[in-house]
């Protein structure tokens, strides 16, 4: 392995990056670094005068020069010799605490094939990239055009993540208690545990970011987003989120119009009060009924039927749009399951029977046992604790109200707030504990692929969050059977949530950017060149899209599950989302570090969560229809027993589920042209594999 220990300050070997690149955006990045200090590449096709800084590795403040030289050497040597085949720049000098990393052309191209990315072929079609056939792809000599910035930066992370020790060795300059690498151990993960590496993050391109912000959130347009530019700069994960947010916001227009019509043009259509007191046996539909002056066709009956159909059609048409976007972005043929295992994966060293590589192996049946016998029961336990907390809240509320009625004192009046405060504290504490347990459980399950890890972790947190948001509403609707209370609770949730969201997502970011970030921006103008790159670490890391997807999922749930009792739900959500798009865009561009974004072909487990809510909406709306004043009045006048009504509701529920399934079957998940393109990609890949064997 080549050592860089004998190279003094200012004498690092010159290298290059990307083939013939356009100047402009590249120069905004490369001009801040001395081009003569990059490590050397041996491949002639990778030599270039301009090297694009892509990723910054922040080292510990007391990093030893010998450790830094060893790491730079490891980053630069070929994969055959145990390195990452990347380009490294030492920053100010070999004693500094940063390493700037880029990637040569051949490394980028080989990783493109490994990831299964599709690129434009010479005939204009999107084809799975093949390194051996690289000369037949468009723009293959210009990495700025061939790969997006997000793809180039992710490839650097991809290569760094899979740096593994070829044999047991000691890390130079690190105490032996922390610095011994075992064979096939992940090097970056070990260095992070040892405190050598503080952080690894992609670098912003200021000029591109400014241009993107001008098109995205600084303009006067209300609708439409530069989705291709978002995907090119921030990657597929963030691109798919904003694409779905845009699609979902447009999809709110029809239910919003219907809600306005039912509320203001159809007398009583949006209300329909009444309470049903549940009784035993045949008397389930008998009890106290408050008949309103609704029209013969109840407004929330129309809204319920519409919501069930709307939730199905939205997700089916989204899947079609998602597949079209996936093709346009070259993400139809991803091959994660054939890549190296994710950094946290562990097992017994062996030969992968599919790829033939030496890597950690872990039996699938052991993972399934861990999920089924440990993870599922523990998740169920926490969900039970959520229900227990809700039960305790109602019990405590009843006790506090009874005590206040008997006492009537100021002290008893203050005690009325105690159950709510206690419930909030309980759910927050339980949520914090659960998030930690969910992460540890998912780590313990030992998933090989990063997407599998993220899907299992997201599913665990999603179930808990769903219970937290919807348990009270289901309790009011199905146990108390109190539609006026459900309507009031839903309206208050929507209004308060929108106000809080607008404050936290618009006002707070604006204040932070305007008053707290300004001194830092002014200070950076006179900083040394490398400090301008290092300063990006002062921004907080991007927290991910979990909270954003949860917000959309809760919106979708409010609308598809309960909007029949409050038709203005879609109107409030539409108004919120129009500002949500710009607020989210502003935050990700201005207030956080640039995140790494793995190539993805869809929304993953979130898409499944939205579809599951669509099925739950059938049961929810059928029951709410059963509670509607017109249906109850009709049943009581017709002398229909409660048991027959329940049987009829179950029959209607099954029929509607069948209708949803028929609609889902009739609407293909991808347009015919995308299906043909996907099959062409598979056929072309099969042909390329056959030619390689010959």
TrEMBL record:
It is a multi-pass membrane protein. Its main location: membrane. One of its GO terms (cellular component) is plasma membrane. Keywords: Membrane, Transmembrane, Transmembrane helix. One of its GO terms (molecular function) is chloride channel activity. Signal peptide: none annotated. It holds the Pfam family Anoctamin. This is Anoctamin.
